[in-house]
Specification:
Blueprint: E1 5-9, H1 16-26, E2 32-35, H2 42-54, E3 62-65, H3 68-74, E4 78-81, H4 88-94, E5 99-104, H5 107-115, E6 120-124, H6 139-147, E7 154-157, H7 165-170, E8 175-178, H8 180-183, H9 188-199
Binding site for 2-[(2R,5Z)-2-carboxy-4-methylthiazol-5(2H)-ylidene]ethyl phosphate: 129-131, 159
Cofactor: Mg(2+)
Pathway: Cofactor biosynthesis; thiamine diphosphate biosynthesis; thiamine phosphate from 4-amino-2-methyl-5-diphosphomethylpyrimidine and 4-methyl-5-(2-phosphoethyl)-thiazole: step 1/1
């Protein structure tokens, strides 16, 4: 198995101190740490990134969801956009140094994101997840259709347990994204190592 990306998204439910502590502990095993804090102001997100920086969490691993302004000011890895965010092509034009991802939920959305210049997309939810109760998962077949139709990386998201990783990768995904499965685990470090071990080519080691 080739090396794949591992993204972890904050849930918006953890105290800042706990989130910083956890990210400090798990970042060596990840490709990207997403600050996904919908209720926080730009200043609060800025302050959170500052705390992570003081804990030697590399800015090159931090992705800020939606807030392109904070991502640019803090010079982090990139920003992740949703349907309500700024247009992808405008962000790429004005902030070419940012890696820009986009959440998609259909083949049409994935093709549009690619055409607009997204560097990668996340697609889901793949499996049932508590964050979307009552909403049917989109499943591996839809994931397979999307990965076969676009040339940019596709990251699977939604209800992915360690036991699912192989099937998600075999469906063509370039990696996975996890929220509560790691951050709300009893032992986040143990869980991130478990996910990482399912993604990494053991002969080559992990390269974020």
């Amino acid at each position: 198995m080739n090396n794949k990306e591992l993204h972890v998204l904050s849930t918006g439910r953890q105290p800042v101190e706990r989130l910083v502590e956890t990210f400090e502990e798990i970042h060596p095993y990840l490709t990207a740490l997403h600050i996904r804090e919908k209720e926080k102001t730009a200043r609060e997100i800025y302050q959170l990134v500052e705390q992570l920086r003081t804990k030697n969490v590399p800015l090159s691993k931090i992705v800020i969801n939606d807030r392109v302004d904070v991502a640019q000011v803090m010079r982090v890895q990139g920003t992740h956009l949703a349907y309500h965010s700024l247009p992808i092509d405008q962000v790429k034009e004005h902030f070419p140094q940012l890696r820009v991802g986009c959440s998609v939920h259909s083949l049409e959305e994935a093709l549009r994101a690619q055409a607009q210049g997204a560097d990668y997309v996340t697609f889901g939810h793949i499996f049932e997840t508590q964050s979307k109760p009552g909403v049917n998962p989109r499943g591996l077949e839809q994931l397979r259709t999307i990965t076969a139709s676009v040339t940019i990386p596709v990251i699977g998201i939604g209800g992915i347990q360690p036991s699912h990783v192989q099937s998600v990768v075999e469906a063509g995904a370039d990696g996975i994204a996890v929220m509560s499965g790691i951050l709300e685990a009893e032992n986040p470090l143990e869980m991130v190592k478990e996910y990482n071990s399912r993604l990494v080519d053991r002969k080559e080691g992990f390269h974020a």
